Automatic annotation (TrEMBL):
Top-level taxon in the UniProt lineage: Bacteria
Organism (species): Komagataeibacter melaceti
Gene3D superfamilies, alphabetized: Phosphoglycerate mutase-like
Phylogenetic lineage: Bacteria, Pseudomonadati, Pseudomonadota, Alphaproteobacteria, Acetobacterales
Stored Pfam families: His_Phos_1 (PF00300)
Protein name: Histidine phosphatase family protein
């Protein structure tokens, strides 16, 4: 029997929609997301602690947290030096001061995916769209340089299955507008 990993991309924080790097606080659980969660099974949450009022099927999975932005968190893109932004976009090994590079994010996520135990059979991971891109690329044996080449939108579903190895079943399927 194959293991199934369903990844639900959380909505982007409001600050990102306004061109500001997010802080490291855990994401909010959108109210409409409950309709897309399994009735039973394990739900992995990208923080040290589960969302308020959610215990039982929710389990902390800090490896699924978004990339740390270090000194850039809370800063507007328009206020950043153009050379720093160019390096951040073009060099997967470049990290904001005190933050995490795309290569570091890929290593963290690939290690998490490789270490997932074969049980339970059904897992649901809630994470930022960038983290889900890293999960897909890790499953395909790719590198951090591939992250900008894959689109995974917020409010979408990506499914992987594991037989002898991870396979990508579908990516970026939109969830209903209820979120």
């Amino acid at each position: 029997m194959a293991q199934i990993l369903t990844c639900l991309a959380l909505p982007a924080p409001a600050c990102v929609r306004h061109g500001v790097f997010p802080d490291a606080s855990p994401p909010d659980l959108p109210p409409g997301l409950a309709a897309h969660l399994p009735q039973t099974g394990t739900v992995l949450w990208p923080a040290e602690s589960c969302p308020a009022g959610r215990t039982g099927q929710f389990h902390p999975a800090p490896a699924l947290r978004t990339a740390a932005m270090g000194e850039w968190q809370g800063r507007a893109l328009k206020d950043m030096p153009a050379t720093d932004l160019e390096r951040w976009v073009s060099d997967p090994d470049f990290a904001p001061p005190g933050g995490e590079s795309r290569s570091m994010l890929m290593q963290r996520v690939a290690a998490w995916l490789a270490e997932l135990p074969p049980a339970p059979r059904h897992l649901t991971a809630l994470a930022d769209a960038t983290v889900i891109r890293a999960i897909v690329i890790a499953a395909l044996g790719g590198t951090a340089a591939m992250l900008p080449r894959l689109d995974i939108a917020p409010h979408s579903r990506t499914v992987l299955t594991r037989h002898a190895m991870w396979r990508v079943s579908c990516t970026g399927t939109p969830l209903e507008e209820s979120l």
